[in-house]
Fold each of these.
Amino acid sequence: MPKGFVYILECSDGTFYTGSTINLDKRLDEHQNGSGANHTKKRLPVKLVYVQEFLRIDDAFYKEKQIQGWSRKKKLALIKGNFNELKKYAECMNDSHYKEWLRLRSAIENDTKNKQSQLVTERSRSYSNGKLLLTGEYAVLDGALSLAVPTKYGQSLDIEPIDKPVISWKSLDENGAIWFETIFNITNNGISLAVKNDNTVSERLIQILNAAKQLNSDFLNEDRGYKINTKLDFPRHWGLGTSSTLINNIAQWASVDAYKLLKMTFGGSGYDIACAQHNTPITYQLENSQPLVKPIDFNPSFKGHLYFVYLNKKQNSRDGIKHYNANKGNLHSYIKDINTISSQIIASNSLEDFESLITQHEDIISKLTKQRTIKTLLFNDFKGSIKSLGAWGGDFILVASKENPMPYFNQKGYKTVIRYTDMVLL
């Protein structure tokens, strides 16, 4: 295994960026020329203020994640080499916790090596598609017929048994960098943290794993554990289903109903689970609280004029749903109109018809939620049609335009513009 480096950069705005690499010079060049992380390329120039070399790159990864959780004062103490201050500002993962972490990680790796030949055939992988809801946002919760599409971006989950009753969890982002990792204990009482880290991601994972165990009492009921690696194809902030793809992957691993697992953990309509499980566009509808999923042939001839634009922030879907529930009025007539529009959008064969339909849909949701449409709010001068997707104010919007809209949105600061054909599984 190659050696590694942990480094801290001071950005032009005074913030710190912590990273790890096997090639320090190359990585520093990437940061300095703007091809590194999003945080640094927006805050050039950067200055190297700390570096530490490790014999193993995985040790460097662990140290990187530890430092990223530190306060600014503690990072400054590390940079200055003031170890008394380091101890003073120590937070949840202090030295004893970190030593325990390393001990557990070392034990897991040794066990994996010793049992590799016996367990290699039991390794498995699951994969789930990301999601976008094209029609029926919000109203899908109340039975509206909705058009949803699975994305070419998704999340995988790799499972490798080990001969120790723990779960060594590692989550990788779209670049292969670790954004979260921890170790869980497996006991008769359920799943718990082996090393304290006071992290909401850990709490969520414990909730999901224990819920899966409630649904299947045989799940995690052996005298062994697992090394788990998850890998995203898309940035977490895009809102394409980091949680739903994880729920569906864990449901596959645990052999449980993904819709039930979603209900016990995150909640929601479940359309995102349906997208995770299908490789074609679908219609989705709740009938007596049960999901009705129908694969459909939705491959519009004008798809070359459709784009998805990221609004530079991830919207909190729960907040959006709360606003919807607080303001919705006479649902019956609204849902009837949404159902008609959804069916007409699926059958549309011209860009003009499609633009008219998504504009009508926007007007309905605007009245239903008592909010201004995204086009009126942000892009009133755009010569084309714009439709919100999901909770308004964040995530992606759908854009229909005869002309390439990328220059327009780029000029306004929206740099992530993805063609329909590059986003959607057809």
Amino acid sequence: MKLTKHLFFILISFISIQANANEAKNWLNSEIDLIISAYKNENLPNENKFLMVEQTINNNFAGTGIAKFVAGKSWNKASKDVKLEYIKLFKRHLALNISSMMQGYSNQKYQLTDSRYDEKNKVTLIDMEIFSDTGSIQVTWRVKKSKDRFFVIDLLVADISLVVTKRSEFNSMLKTVDYNLFEFNKKLLAQNESSYQKITN
């Protein structure tokens, strides 16, 4: 009898975990479709397309947590105002990066192939395959639920973490200003403005 109860609770837990994974998968699918539909619209100005991406990043990415991780040891040295400015700049930087990648979009097909819940880390992993004329690429989204909402916490392209890559990239830039986040914000602002001009023109 005890064994039967134990198996029952395992089954219920598994069903609950799968339901959570499927819910996250459906949420991600709708968010991706929203952006892709914008890039399919040739009449929509580039600035509008970018603003859609930026809004999606601000609403659905764990921007503050990612920004803090990427800043590394420079984070603790900075004042509150400098940190807030950096978070704002980082989110725009992320949106500009994704918009830049989307500019090469030419009606590729994609499919969300699998979703699974990592019980240990409380994260849902969602695999996506993007197809093109030359082949396909594997992308894995790491999605976390907080306060009844889903947030993207990382993106792995061909098993390479976007967050880890950004931390390495930013560390090289931070080194040039002796890990001073205030000075780094000036560099990031200039970089963002340059990228924005390229994307919206």
Amino acid sequence: MMGKCLIIGAGGVASVAVHKCCQNSGVFKEIMIASRTKSKCDALKSKLQGTTDTLIHTARVNADNVDEMIALIESFNPDVVLNLALPYQDLTIMDACLATRTHYVDTANYEPPETAKFEYKWQWAYRDKFKNAGITALLGSGFDPGVTGVFCAYAMKHYFDSIEYIDILDCNGGDHGYPFATNFNPEINIREVSANGRYWESGKWIETSPMEIKREYRFDGVGERDMYLLYHEELESLAQNIKGIKRIRFFMTFGQSYLTHLKCLENVGMTSIEPIMYEGREIIPLQFLKAVLPDPASLGERTIGKTNIGCIIQGVKDGKPVNYYVYNICDHRECYKEVGSQAVSYTTGVPAMLGAMMVMTGEWNKAGVYNIEEFDPDPFMRELNKWGLPWIESFNPDLVN
């Protein structure tokens, strides 16, 4: 089945998703790229037009404005809206999808601009509305959240009777040559890293100080790295959706240079999201810092090395313990050669396209609001291998203590 997809956003992840939709023109007959900065959309269109059978349109839209979003959806009439804008805009875009009865897909959960908080409660509150409208909202169709949830659902379906422990490991072994830069939106990245850590154990959340829990792990394709326990949004949905779970944690690798710079910036107040007065006008320090740092989209051509992201899952099958590790290795250089971006954008942009495809073709078809692990993982796992994110399995992994 072919269809039309409206893509909101024109940053690094959107660029990858657009490239992938255009490679997949048997499914994506038409796409529209819409963003506050139309010139970015037009640049993507001119780069890809003539290389694909997908028809590309562009538009300017303020995704904070529900009426503007509704008008755009009504004029283009897409089968699905793929939200690759900022997490602050999830709810307005969901409202517009409800008003127009259009399927919705995103990669990151809603965050209120004024507090650094990952929670699904705002989007889960839309469950009945989407169900009654007969449309699907697929939440978190990136890599983490996204592929990590599909990995867990796949493990549950094929290898376990019950899952007790999940460790999600996110390693970026890439080097961009800057002393300090972030691989995706600096505002979101720094909010994520400087927040308290949290993990789920024995039916409750256990909170830790930022970067308090550190482990070392040897990553296939990358080598030994320091990784730190963070809170990440998929923990919330997986803790509810994976039956029998006793503990679920999320670890991310950071180099010493990144951590030292971040600490200094925190100490002098540059990572604050509280407004301050500067020369007679209000500014938010973190937004000012974002303007000073290298644009993540510019890192692609400088970045070498690989990412390795996956899930170590422990549980029981036929009364016997099973340890299972499923992961993907992605090469920054290869991604840049293919779509002009580094692997962090690539690993999110490919699953974003796949989620939109699953919903648009009806492969995943349930009215309501769902996290990605609530759908059949098999077709998604097949497509990952086909579209550039092949996965590797191990039944004898090193466990994280």
Amino acid sequence: MLDKKKTKKLIKLKKTHLKNRVFSYSTNKEFEFIDLGEEEFSIFDDLEKTQVLKIPELHEMNLEDNEINHCTYSDSVSDIHPKKEKISKEKKILIIILLVCILLLASIAWKIINWQKDNVDTEKQIEKIQEEVKVEEIKKDPEVQEITEEEKNLPNDYFDFQKVNLLNVDFNNLLKRNPDTIGWVKLEGTSINYPFVQTTDNDYYLTHSFNKKNNDSGWVYLDYRNNIHNLSQNTILYGHGRLNNTMFGSLKKVIKKSWYNNSGNHIVRISTPTENSVWQVFSTYTIDPESYYITTDFSDNQQYTDFINTLKNRSVYNYNVDVSINDHILTLSSCYDDSKRVVLHAKLISKVAR
């Protein structure tokens, strides 16, 4: 057996040579190294006798006490440790990649769960509103109106829109549930048929539902700069483009040929506690996020004229609708995808007090 002095000397030599890596002599007289493949160690019992062994052979070799005075290794050996396998650089990279993937999957799963939870909550609120709120179509009171010279030159469908039934909504229950309620909007050919709200900014209802609870579905809301009772030149409604078609998710339909080809779809109806109105669509398109099309008022007629012409020229279809500086515009805006907005513009055709 090695005496304690020789064992200590051996360990001290190895620690120095291996730059503080551990070398040990086990109680069963076996040197234990990790398998570094073709790396070589030299075992010798005196300066005259030297035996060169590869690590796997050394690992299996029993050495008697009197056979060992020194143990050295070649400079290319990277690490030695008894009974502990070194984790290679490649394995470390794989472990890191695996951990990153797990974290990403967990994050995606969490978002999907919350997305679905928000959808379910929103759909329940919509169902409850539809059950509790009375929404009806009413005909306009027959009135004999003199046709102006300007109106004689308008397309025939102008008068068809004048005859469209009004939307009439009972707001009593809605106002009890949410005092921010100021109107109801319905766009033909889509699922947009909701009450809309307004607060002091354009952020709150991006992340809060009709019941004012946190919800990434948000709710349909009027731009805080607008006054639904005293219309700006451009009145703007926003809503998230949800994949399940709630809120303004179905607004994407307005750039499809099938939606455009049905002229009965070109109608937006709004009801408020004080009046009901009908609007005619004249432009639909997608665009990168900007602030121009959500300008509410203009300093002079020329600016407004330029604005109207810009909106018409952007449209993917020609609606053949005359829009002038005397018209009020309604804008519906939503996300089309992660980088674009889908936008609809309509002009006020008629407004009737309740």
